[in-house]
Amino acid sequence: MFEQDQDTVDVLLSESDTFRRLYDKHIALKSQVQDANGGAISMEQLALEELKKEKLSLKDQMAEMIKNYHSAHA
Fold first, then answer.
1. Cα gap 24→33, rounded to integer Å
2. 59/63 Cα distance (integer angstroms)
3. CA distance 34 to 65
4. pLDDT for 29
5. Number of domains, the chain
6. I need a surface site. Which of 41, 50, 62, 71 has the fewest CB within 10 A?
7. Residue 74: its pLDDT value, please?
8. Is 36 in contact with 51 (CB distance < 8 Å)?
9. Kindly report the CA angle at 32 between 35 and 68, in degrees rounded to 5?
């Protein structure tokens, strides 16, 4: 997900409960989206789109936290 910033992700996962919560939720949503896209679970298209939007929102929030971490530790 954030391969180029993996060191920062690792630090934030260990130091920030908020980042850890966002990360865990993102992983869970990613799995649900993959299962729905692969046919493993049945889901209406609208519900799937909502999951995708929520997943993207979480990713954006984590990206902002990574950016802020870089700014604070530059």
1. 14
2. 6
3. 25
4. 96
5. 1
6. 71
7. 78
8. yes
9. 135
Q: What is the DSSP letter of 74?
A: -
Specify the pLDDT at position 2: 76
Element (H, E) at 62: helix 45-72
Q: CB–CB of 13/19 below 8 Å?
A: yes
Which residues form the domain of 45? 3-72
| CA atoms of 18 and 44, how far apart (whole Å) | 30
In angstroms, the Cα distances linking 31 to 18, 25, 53, 68, 72 are 20, 10, 14, 27, 32
